[in-house]
């Protein structure tokens, strides 16, 4: 594991994912550990934004999924490829990764003993060839006959392929629906299943209910759709990959319990027209890493009442807040803060010159927030770091590890002996 981390320090040292020379990290690979965000800002007084990873939270999430999900658990690499979190997931037992590009598979392939799934339904011919011949990847997704043809040609008619037909399913209570871009339905899907069966060693069906899906019935409906297609196509299916979509918790999005999702998935799987040997796979991104990373920002200006200009924004790790309206949990990090100070709604502006670099929130913070204060923005582990750009010269981050608990943890709630149905 140490060698893997050492290798990845070099391998992923490209901005902005794992920046090594951010303003406050002094050119060294900063992975200092602190008990809390307050301890970190007191000691480092960081000028730039800081990613504060809580690897123990990613490890806990992975262990929960491995224990409770009735099948195999892969991690969707795109959600966050921080070495700290990957290390924690791997350490907890995640050895399968869902990748979507040559860059991702090259990166993920440096992790020892991994099994990679190339689950993007549209891949370049070059990517297919590299994946199969250079990285020994057998597992591919597709949603058209054209893509099937590409896979057959570029693998030179390989006989050991695991091919997953991506079907389109309704996006119910999903914050980020995906069904319009990918997935095949109806007679086209039946035909594709039959054709894929003819060339695949293992035939799979896969779907994605949409990211941040807050109710488990979305999975129930997706299984129903898969079941209909299997029966109509009359094919033997060897694997079902239910994708990601599992929720995390945000200030404006409180999902059903994860165990309710597991219950629906077990009940649905039991009704599928497949044998007991059929593999069941999930590939969560968000749910495994969302609560395992915070962003610590500094207030550069308080303007006209409750508008805070902070040093990261919509072109940085707060893309989902600026463009999808996510309200992340926040707290003021200041020595000697009065815990009883009343909270007020604030909105954030990012550091770039663009007027869409705005996060409306509302973010509830103590009314005394002022220039120079630090704010922890929690649960940005999924798609925060991953979406940051270097626009306007911003988007450079220092990295630290925090040992305290995330601002919200759906896993701490799952593991709590009481407080259920409260
Ligand atoms: C993005 C993606 C995932 C992960 O989705 P989450 O909503 O983050 O869990 C899984 N599988 C595929 C194919 C994806 O594109």
TrEMBL record:
GO cellular component, one term: cytoplasm
Domain of life according to the entry: Bacteria
Pathway: Amine and polyamine biosynthesis; putrescine biosynthesis via L-ornithine pathway; putrescine from L-ornithine: step 1/1
GO molecular function: ornithine decarboxylase activity
UniProt entry keywords in alphabetical sequence: Lyase, Pyridoxal phosphate
Cofactor(s) listed: pyridoxal 5'-phosphate
Biological processes, Gene Ontology terms: putrescine biosynthetic process from arginine, via ornithine
Active site: 353
Domain Orn/DAP/Arg decarboxylase 2 N-terminal: 65-290
Biased composition (Polar residues): 15-27
Major enzyme class: lyase
Enzyme Commission (EC) number: 4.1.1.17
Catalytic activity from the UniProt record: L-ornithine + H(+) = putrescine + CO2
Sequence segments annotated as region (Disordered): 8-28
Family of this protein: Belongs to the Orn/Lys/Arg decarboxylase class-II family.
Protein name, UniProt field: ornithine decarboxylase
Organism: Hyphomicrobium denitrificans 1NES1
């Amino acid at each position: 594991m140490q060698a893997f981390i050492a290798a990845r320090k070099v391998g992923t040292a490209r901005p902005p994912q794992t920046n090594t020379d951010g303003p406050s990290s002094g050119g060294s690979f900063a992975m200092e550990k602190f008990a809390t965000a307050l301890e970190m800002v007191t000691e480092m007084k960081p000028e730039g934004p800081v990613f504060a990873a809580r690897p123990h939270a990613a490890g806990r999430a992975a262990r929960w999924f491995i224990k409770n999900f009735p099948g195999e658990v892969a991690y969707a690499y795109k959600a966050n490829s921080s070495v700290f979190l990957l290390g924690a997931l791997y350490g907890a037992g995640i050895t399968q990764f869902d990748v979507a590009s040559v860059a991702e598979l090259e990166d993920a392939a440096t992790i020892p003993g991994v099994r990679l799934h190339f689950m993007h339904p549209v891949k370049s011919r070059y990517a297919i060839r590299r994946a199969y011949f250079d990285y020994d990847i057998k597992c591919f997704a597709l949603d058209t006959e054209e893509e099937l043809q590409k896979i057959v040609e570029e693998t030179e008619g390989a006989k050991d392929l695991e091919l997953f037909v991506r079907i389109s399913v309704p996006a119910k209570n999903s914050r980020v629906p995906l069904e319009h871009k990918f997935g095949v339905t109806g007679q086209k899907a039946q035909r594709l299943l039959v054709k894929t069966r003819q060339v695949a060693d293992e035939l799979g069906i896969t779907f994605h209910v949409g990211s941040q899906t807050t109710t488990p019935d979305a999975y129930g409906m997706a299984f129903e759709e898969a079941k209909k297609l299997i029966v109509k196509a009359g094919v033997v299916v060897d694997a079902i990959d239910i994708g990601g979509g599992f929720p995390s918790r945000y200030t404006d999005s409180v999902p059903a319990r994860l165990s309710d999702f597991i219950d629906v998935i077990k009940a649905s799987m039991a009704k599928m027209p497949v044998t007991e040997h059929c593999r069941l796979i999930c590939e969560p991104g968000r749910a495994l890493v969302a609560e395992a990373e915070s962003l610590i920002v500094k207030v550069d200006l308080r303007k006209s009442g409750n508008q805070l200009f902070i040093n990261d924004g919509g072109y940085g790790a707060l893309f989902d807040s600026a463009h999808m309206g996510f309200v992340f949990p926040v707290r003021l990090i200041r020595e000697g803060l009065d815990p009883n100070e009343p909270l007020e709604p604030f909105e954030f502006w990012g550091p770039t010159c663009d007027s869409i670099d705005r996060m409306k929130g509302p973010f509830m913070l103590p009314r005394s927030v002022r220039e120079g204060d630090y704010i922890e923005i929690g649960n940005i582990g999924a798609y925060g770091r991953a979406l940051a750009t270097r626009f306007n010269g911003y988007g450079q981050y220092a990295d630290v590890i925090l040992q305290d608990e995330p601002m919200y943890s759906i896993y701490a709630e799952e593991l709590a002996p009481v407080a259920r149905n409260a």
